[in-house]
Design goal:
Structural class: alpha/beta
Number of domains: 2
Bound molecules: glutamine
Largest sheet: 7 strands, mixed
Order of helices and strands: EHHHEHHEEHEHEHEEHHHEHEE
Strand content: 15-25%
CATH topology of the largest domain: Rossmann fold
CATH class of the largest domain: Alpha Beta
Radius of gyration: 21 Å
Oligomer: single chain
Shape: elongated
Strand order of the largest sheet: 7-6-5-8-9-11-10
Distance between the termini: 61 Å
Length: 283
């Protein structure tokens, strides 16, 4: 007879053998996901019997993780801003660092028309629409497959967001109060140095920011005069070493009140500014 505990022990051992960092934790998450149990339930009844079939199926998930497939792609979900997002290999897995971007925008999003460029899973715009009382929300991506994940997320989370297939602004019309984006920003030559989980499984389209990593910032910031209302806000996620270059692009485009915000690790992560100055200061 097999038990939950046998499965977990075997799962941990296999992940360890395959050199998966934090393998013990991942073995637990996959157990919790597959058997729909929480930690307390497991601790109370670790020796509950499971069928041979269940044991085998759980190990199938473990084998996937052994191949460095990210946990979130195996479970098909990732928590972000306290919401549960569906993810597939067609979208970047929402990162905790990106919550800093959303938190910053939430300070001013109430009653605003918001445009999210490179929306991917839709995690940013859906969180803002749900938690930020926006007036309207539009998410844009060039990838049809990403958009179908984003639409599925909006449906599941019962959030009213319009999604648009567009190469940044090509299909965008009108002006917005807020433009927000976490665009691909990794310089092409750095992609081969990323973790196997990222470089072999996450969409390269969502990572590659061209030779200097700034390609998308240039396009997004160039569009400010056409797509951002006067006094509108722009919020961008950046890499730890891009604050200076992106600030310069923002200043050249008439953005003022530029501020760089750090992530939980204390690294520059978000940059925000306002299109043309108003008397009142940014709160
Ligand atoms: N906006 C999405 C996210 O932050 C996707 C970003 C991307 O594909 N670069 O997760």
């Amino acid at each position: 007879m097999r038990t939950l505990e046998d499965a977990l022990i075997k799962g941990k051992a296999l992940l360890k053998e395959n050199g998966i960092t934090e393998g013990d934790l991942d073995a637990w998450y996959l157990l919790s996901h597959y058997f729909h149990i929480n930690r307390a339930q497991y601790i109370m009844h670790p020796r509950i019997a499971i069928t041979e079939e269940q044991y085998r199926r759980y190990l199938t998930l473990i084998y996937k993780r052994s191949e460095h497939i990210p946990l979130s792609y195996i479970t098909g979900e990732q928590e972000f801003m306290g919401l549960n997002f569906h993810v597939s290999e067609d979208v970047l897995i929402p990162r905790q660092d990106t919550e800093v971007l959303v938190e910053e925008a939430l300070k001013v999003s109430r009653g605003k028309e918001v445009l999210d460029l490179c929306t991917g899973s839709g995690c940013i715009i859906i969180s803002l629409a749900r938690l930020g009382r926006t007036k309207s929300a539009v998410g844009v991506d060039i990838s049809k497959k990403a958009l179908s994940v984003a639409k599925e997320n909006a449906r599941r989370l019962q959030t009213d967001v319009t999604f648009l297939e567009s190469d940044i602004y090509t299909q965008v019309r009108g002006k917005y109060d807020i433009i927000i984006s976490n665009p691909p920003y990794i310089p092409t030559r750095d992609i081969s140095d990323l973790m196997e989980e990222v470089k072999n499984h996450e969409p390269v389209l969502a990572l590659d920011g061209s030779a200097d990593g700034l390609y998308f910032y240039r396009i997004i910031i160039n569009g400010v005069s056409q797509f951002l209302k006067p006094d509108g806000y722009i919020f961008l996620e950046i890499s730890y070493n891009q604050a200076e270059a992106v600030s310069k692009l923002l200043r050249e485009a008439g953005i003022v009140d530029i501020k760089v915000i750090n992530d939980l690790a204390g690294l520059n992560r978000v940059i925000r500014g306002r299109y043309k100055k108003e008397e009142e200061s940014f709160t």
